[in-house]
Amino acid sequence: MARKRQPDNVRETLVGRVAAEALEYTAGRDRALDLELVEADCHGSAAHAVMLSRMPVRPPVLTPDDARRIVAELGALARRAAAGRFEITAEDQDVHLAVERALTRRLGDLGRRIHTGRSRNDQVAVDLRLWGKRQLLDGISEAAALAEALIAFGRRHARVPMVGRTHQQPAMPSSVGLWAAAHAESLLDDIVLLMDALELNDQCPLGAAAGYGVPLPLDRQRVSDLLGFSRPTHTALHAIHARGKIEAVILSAFGQTLLTLSRLAQDLIQYSMPEFGYFSLPRAFGTGSSIMPQKNNPDVLELVRAKCARVLADQFAVLEILRAAPGGYNRDVQETKEPFIEGVRAARATLRILRPLIAGVEVHPDRLRAAFGPEVFAADRALELVAEGVPFRDAYRRVKETLGDLAGRDPDEAVARKTHLGAPAGVDYGLLQRRARAAARVAAAERRAFERALKRLMAFGQ
User: 3-class SS at 418?
Assistant: First the structure.
């Protein structure tokens, strides 16, 4: 029987011989994306090494001195990666084998022992959760800072009249303060979703291996504590099944945040058009035309709308990849990494760019007041008649038939009369500011605790 001819371009990897074409296809964009995960992979490997050195087996897989050497080398490797001096080769396939290769090259047999009791399945899961935790904590801080900027903007222009609109048509007297405070409050609600995502993400999957555990006395609680997680995931299989699902939850929270920002951006674009002239955008956040010298286009705000669409699409892509996946690990979930990382990057960049833009928006009170036609006061006048004893439907009909009589009404006075909770003259900016600052404090405290845990872990190698 003729022997099957092997492809000429077979590559040797840590997990076997693989055709170059298959290697390229299965690695996808992991070599580039995984550079974002090097530090997380080093932290996960360090916690695993420390745990192995304390595992009650004889002979030990690693001694405490072995673990110290490994952790020290992982710290050096993370620093090299941060300086842009770490490479993931085609033969590595991903960050996990690249780190193992680097350890083996430097430490020999110790590098070959590090993978005991784990799989790339739980490695990538812990890397993404560590990365996701940082992104959520920073994203919450950035969202809180943007909310504060909107609250400050609203407070500065609290009583400046602004036509409130429904169906984009003039509706009722409102204020610039209410407009800004509404977007800020929406962002504060989005922060609640980001915090919920943070809580779900804050579970350590390491030690689940391929999803079915291993016949070794792994101390998963110790690993979770070393990495600064609130707890380990419980079942080994769920630790692997949650891959992709938790990324979709995080993208959903960021997607809701960007829905708020997209609507804010649309308002700013519309109200800064010459036909409105309510606001002027800071020129430094616009760009010119290659042919029209006069142009200063709201490109940043237009891209906010596009980034929102992208993040929502990234969430949907992750969900669609998972939708028909059977139980256990499947390579399909590798394709969730790119939309997750790129979607979170886009969301955070959007939060950061809008804060200085909002601070630079100029308000034009004269244009805002000039936009008030008689019809804007119609509902208010009907309610005045109700207060005088006229049934509402009679008042409604009377005002509808005499709209011209409302000409000359004062928009400032109309705003000042709306004093109930949440109305234009009843916005509690202090309440909103306290919510924003409380969220920022929680995120900062969580970030400090997280960083302390990782610092203690890496100090084991010193």
Answer: coil
pLDDT for res 31: 75
Establish whether 289 is a catalytic residue. yes
Burial class (CB in 10 A: 0-12, 13-18, 19+), 88: buried
* 158-193 exposure pattern, b = at least 16 Cβ within 10 A, e = fewer: bebbbbbeeeeebebbbbbbbbbbbbbbbbbebbeb
Cα gap 454→458, rounded to integer Å: 6
Helix (H, G, I), strand (E, B) or coil at 362: strand
pLDDT for 24: 62
Out of 48, 289, 290, 420, which one is annotated catalytic? 289
CA distance 372 to 377: 8
- pLDDT at res. 89: 86
Of 297, 74, 393, the C-alpha closest to 385 is 393
Cβ–Cβ < 8 Å for 34, 102: no
Does 167 participate in catalysis according to the annotation? Answer: yes
CB 136 within 8 A of CB 194: yes
93 CB neighbour count, 10 Å cutoff? 24
How far is residue 88 from each of residues 23, 147, 187, 213, 338, measured CA to CA in Å? Answer: 13, 39, 38, 28, 16
Domains and CATH numbers, the chain: 10-113 (1.10.275.10), 134-369+427-457 (1.20.200.10), 373-408 (no CATH)
Written as six digits, the tokens of 33 are 């994306």
Torsion over CA: 345, 347, 351, 357 (sign)? positive
Catalytic residue among 96, 115, 141, 167: 167
Length of the chain: 462
Pairing outcome for strands 203-204 and 231-232:
parallel
Q: What is the pTM for the complete model shown? A: 0.93
| pLDDT per 10-residue tile (average), the chain, 462 residues | 58 60 63 91 98 97 97 97 91 89 95 95 97 98 98 98 97 98 98 98 98 97 98 97 97 98 98 97 91 92 98 98 92 94 98 97 98 97 97 96 95 98 98 98 98 97 72
